[in-house]
């Protein structure tokens, strides 16, 4: 999925130019909006995430605002990780009619370059494509995690926090107490089961109902289980970051 999503996705591959950063080797760097807004700025229109200088990036989110001008289209894209990000797509008159298919409420994938003007950051889009399969939303989040693991050789959760993953010793042939056959802890298994039960609904289950149904488990343990299950691809967010469905 990583190679396809980063270098072959729907013919959206963009040429990558060599940079001074020794780690800038991803053609298109999958990001969240919060990462782009917090990325350190080296100089004008040059940003980094740690040692990786950002060239082309990809973001997946829902359109909150839309404005069509004669020479460009401006969107406000929200992926629920931070404040919405302004996106500008230059178009000609012939393109403008086709671009209107992306309207508020629709999920889109944006590929472009981060820019800063008057201390306001925006994304100069090379391509804005409507997301028709909602699985692509969770797929993008997994690509974000995978990109950082590939670049930094460390393990992150979906919020890009460093995580410590214990490596159980199963060489004896016996499974540690509290670990299920699928490798999940007892708490993680219960959280996943609740989400699976409610996945028959379009929106899945929200965090409030999840904590109410599992009131014997601490909220902190539920949150950490959600982060782990999302990073492992067992669950994904639906209408917002507080609603979940099982894969």
From TrEMBL:
Localization, UniProt: Nucleus
Top-level division of the source organism's lineage: Eukaryota
Gene Ontology BP, a term: nucleotide-excision repair
One function term, GO molecular function aspect: single-stranded DNA binding
Domain Replication protein A C-terminal: 182-241
Family, similarity comment: Belongs to the replication factor A protein 2 family.
Protein name in the entry: Replication protein A 32 kDa subunit-like
Source organism (scientific name): Xiphophorus maculatus (Southern platyfish)
Lineage: Eukaryota, Metazoa, Chordata, Craniata, Vertebrata
């Amino acid at each position: 999925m990583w190679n396809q999503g980063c270098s072959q996705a729907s013919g959206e591959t963009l040429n990558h130019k060599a940079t001074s950063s020794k780690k800038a080797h991803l053609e298109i760097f999958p990001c969240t909006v919060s990462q782009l807004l917090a990325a350190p700025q080296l100089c004008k229109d040059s940003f980094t995430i740690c040692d990786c200088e950002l060239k082309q990036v990809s973001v997946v989110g829902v359109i909150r605002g839309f404005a069509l001008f004669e020479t460009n289209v401006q969107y406000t894209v929200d992926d629920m990780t931070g404040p919405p990000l302004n996106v500008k797509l230059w178009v000609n008159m012939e393109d403008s009619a086709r671009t209107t298919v992306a309207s508020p409420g629709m999920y889109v994938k944006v590929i472009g370059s981060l820019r800063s003007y008057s201390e306001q950051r925006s994304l100069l889009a090379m391509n804005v494509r409507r997301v028709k399969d909602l699985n692509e939303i969770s797929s993008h989040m997994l690509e974000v995690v995978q990109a950082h693991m590939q670049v930094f050789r460390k393990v992150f959760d979906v919020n890009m926090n460093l995580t410590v993953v214990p490596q159980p010793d199963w060489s004896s042939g016996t499974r540690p107490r509290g670990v299920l056959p699928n490798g999940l802890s007892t708490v993680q298994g219960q959280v996943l089961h609740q989400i699976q039960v409610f996945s028959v609904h379009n929106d899945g289950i929200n965090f409030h109902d999840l904590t109410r149904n599992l009131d014997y488990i601490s909220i902190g343990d539920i949150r950490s289980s959600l982060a782990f299950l999302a990073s492992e691809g067992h669950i994904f967010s639906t209408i917002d970051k507080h609603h979940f469905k099982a894969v």
